[in-house]
Amino acid sequence: MTGPVSPQVLAANAGYLASVLMFMFGIMRMGKVKTARSGNQLAAGAMLLAMVSQFVEMGRIEPWFIVAGIVIGSVVGVVAAIKVEMTEMPEMVALFNGSGGLASALVALAAYAFHHIPMQPLMSASMGEAAPSAVNGLAVMLSIVIGCVTFTGSLIAFGKLSGKVSGSPVLLPGRHVINAALLIMSLGGSVMVVFTTGGMPGMGIVIAVTVMALILGVMLVIPIGGGDMPVVISLLNSYSGLAAAMAGFAINSQVLIVSGSLVGAAGLILTQIMCKAMNRSLTNVLFGGFGAEPEAGGKGGGADEYTNVKSAEAEEVAMILEDVQSLIFVPGYGMAVSQAQHLVRELGDMMAARGCQVRYAIHPVAGRMPGHMNVLLAEASVPYEQLFELDQINNEFKATDAVIVIGANDVVNPDAVNKKDSPLYGMPVLNVWEARTCFVIKRSLSPGFAMVKNPLFEADNNYMVFGDGRKALEEIIKCLKEA
């Protein structure tokens, strides 16, 4: 029969419950543009409350370590918030995912080494508050494996997004065999540590598993091209949540289990949404390009494949825009690269002032991370009510006078709807060709990530506006002001 629960434990448990509820509502609010900021703030408050509750439950703490951690973390966060450009958000998100994975792996490693190296298998070893069990032992090892995979995978994703690593798929010979071997050895070593091996041999196996998991993270991401980064980032986000949940089991932290599970589930759902939006299977992403051959993705869609392309200068675009009553912007990665989001908003405001209905069509995988275009347009103070997801606006193009596509390619390719043998067939795209007039602002006729021709460029109602997105918009705005 257990004794009465102390006020200290009751207060900590109340804090845990409140933080879990705040995490849930925070994630829910982050699902909509209008409430995303408050959702993020709510989730941040939940994390702070969870940490405070943990300290309350512990009772005796080492304040200097806690203060040092808060100060260092706060300084890094403030510097990142000030220095990192909005166009660099995908890279920053990748690093955040990696940091979460690394933190979980370090927690699990600390749990393993609690009170020196366990001299018996983990299923029989006591690790602080966690009672000895095979479940907790497996949780420790899985947190190490998943956390390390997330860490190095996220570093490679960061490198691809920032241009420090080639964005092209790196298809090593026998990569699937290597990946399978690394995964089997990591899991096999984990099972040995949990059920059969302790002491220094067990510690050696843990180190080996850690190294193999770090290598596996690299191997899983390098075969994935830069255009698939939205899927990779959401998947790594899910991995970081799963690693945190496993770490929660390892240290007997209910709030870490629940919050990690929420992040893992949300990331997995988002991954499935991204896969559907890119017409790719989750299996393909999980196995790092499984089924792709080195010669796949051969170059196509070059300028020599186009025969009937009409181009327009800024003056012609401005003349047509003078008479339109409805306008839809379709932002893409080209807008992010040229940092043209503020000019897009300026042109939209000008058109709205003329009595034109202005909207923005957001494709789920436009850019290099989930929500990339939403973040950039929000940073440019585009009204939330003008932002529409693909399903909300796709039927509106038929009744729209003009569409301006800025740096998008595959997400506006008609072959995804009309051509069954196209690699894009079945991928949900924005039906911009249904509008009365379409303008595509693009540097050249070069293909998108899919490396296929885009018939939109040859459509009778389409005009190519060649040039840098920022400069092209500046010229259009100037001509519209002079008209």
Poorly predicted segments:
290-298
User: Average pLDDT, to the nearest integer?
Assistant: 86
**Main β-sheet: number of strands, strand sense, barrel status?**
6 strands, parallel
What is the helix tally? 17
Number of DSSP strand runs = 6
Strand content: 5-15%
Task: Please tell me about this protein's structure.
The protein is of the alpha/beta class. The chain has 2 domains: 84-286, no CATH class; 303-482, Rossmann fold. The protein has helices at 7-29, 36-58, 63-83, 89-112, 134-162, 175-195, 199-221, 229-251, 254-278, 282-286, 314-321, 333-338, 341-353, 372-379, 390-393, 415-418, 469-482; strands spanning 326-331, 357-362, 387-389, 402-406, 437-442, 462-466. The longest helix has 29 residues, at 134-162. The radius of gyration is 26 Å and the shape is elongated. Mean pLDDT is 86; it is low at 290-298.
Give the key terms.
483 residues; alpha/beta; Rossmann fold; 2 domains; six-stranded parallel sheet; 17 helices; 6 strands; 57% helix; elongated
In short:
The protein is of the alpha/beta class and 483 residues long. It is built from 17 helices and six strands.
Topology:
Layout: H1 7-29, H2 36-58, H3 63-83, H4 89-112, H5 134-162, H6 175-195, H7 199-221, H8 229-251, H9 254-278, H10 282-286, H11 314-321, E1 326-331, H12 333-338, H13 341-353, E2 357-362, H14 372-379, E3 387-389, H15 390-393, E4 402-406, H16 415-418, E5 437-442, E6 462-466, H17 469-482
Parallel strand pairs: 1-2, 1-4, 2-3, 4-5, 5-6
